[in-house]
Amino acid sequence: MKTTLRLVYWDFPFWRAEVCRLALHLGGIEFEDVRPNRQQSQQMKRDHELPFGQLPVLYVGDEVIAQTGAIARYCGRLAGLYPHDDPLKAARVDAVIDAATDITWLIRPSIREPDPAKKLAMRAQIVETSLPTWLGHLQRWLECHGDQGFVVGESLTIGDLALWRLVGWLRSGVLDGIPENIGEHLPLLMAHQHKIGSIEPIAAWMHEHYGA
Asked: pTM (2 decimals)?
């Protein structure tokens, strides 16, 4: 009997969900792409449907997988986008996903700040200090491991999808106070953005779902 997959996250192209959505899409794996509104997701939380009280979650039949890294690796294995026979390459993919998580946590306090002036002040400090440092780390990672244009090895992995959408989010203009040209002085990071975003099935997915 075929196992049904149901991926649940809000309706915007944040890396935490898009790495999983795209992995399944690229792998030709059928899944239900559930995009609840905030009210619906809060109800899921009250009903204890979210193991750690947050999205994304992936339902695999009657089982539920939580946490971005776990879901991404599961989807990546199904789609052939996660190294299954090379522990070192797998660890490097994990490192990129963990770095994306760290950068997200760097931004998160400013997202939760309700006061617009304080939010902008927090973002200004991030832009002047820690965010350039992190982007520099990613540039150096590509210098060391991205000689084929991917974050690991010679082909696309979930690490590429995570990095591509993370940087795309930072440069999207949706984060007030973070300039859309941030990172443009980092040639390998920008080349990676172009390379992954130009893959035809990925570009088609983004156009279909977000008009990008």
From this structure: 0.95
